[in-house]
Amino acid sequence: MTAAPPVAPTDAFRKLDPRIVGIWRLATAFRTLIWVPVVFVAWEVAPVPLPLGLIVLPILIGAAISMLLVTPARYRAWAFRVGDLDVRLRHGVLWRTESVVPHFRIQHVDTTHGPLERWRGLGSVVIYTAGSVGGALTIPGLAIAEAESLRDRLAALSGTDDAV
Q1: 138: part of which helix (H) or strand (E)?
Q2: Whole-prediction pTM value?
Q3: Same-domain pairing of 33 and 57
């Protein structure tokens, strides 16, 4: 097992790994595949005076728009920065959010790797903070080595060193 390159503090915001776009598109497709049968069953149980196609078509169009337009915009909106004093996260297409977590507020840091992320060699870093509002922040779509390095760096900067 090789050591991951260190994640050094920098003033520049960093982007997520571009492979996350494919995972987000796949997740949208899976959600769509779940909703179409649900709509069909609901239509059968309580028929409405519309053809089934007019009910399913908006779902399919919405999924296509999400996969082709919203997902790339979501990727472009995501950025994070690890500074000397804090971690900053920016995300959101319509409603933009910027979160600032001072290192001293970090309780512990985890990495997670869902099945789709593992398949593509990606992972997420979850930062747990003191306090109840926004108690956990996630940086998705990082290469596994980068996620593990970032987790270890944040644990060291926070003084907890209890990364899991």
Answers
A1: strand 136-143
A2: 0.78
A3: yes
Burial of 93 (0-12, 13-18, 19+ CB in 10 A): middle
Looking at the fold, whether 85 and 49 belong to one and the same domain comes out as: no
Task: Give the CATH number of the domain where residue 125 resides.
Answer: 2.30.29
For residue 146, is it within any domain?
Answer: yes
- Give the count of domains, the chain: 2
Q: What would the pLDDT profile of 64-114 be if each residue is shown by its tens digit?
A: 888 888 999 999 999 999 998 999 999 999 999 999 999 999 999 999 999
* Separation between Cα atoms, residue 36 and residue 69, nearest integer Å: 21
Tokens read off for 137: 């922040």
| Domain membership flag for residue 16 | no
Range 140-146 contact pairs with CB under 8 angstroms and sequence separation of 24 or more = 140/16, 140/20, 140/78, 141/16, 141/17, 141/19, 141/20, 141/23, 141/75, 141/78, 141/117, 142/16, 142/17, 143/17, 144/111, 144/113, 145/2, 145/4, 145/5, 146/4, 146/5, 146/7, 146/17
Domain span at residue 89 reads 79-158
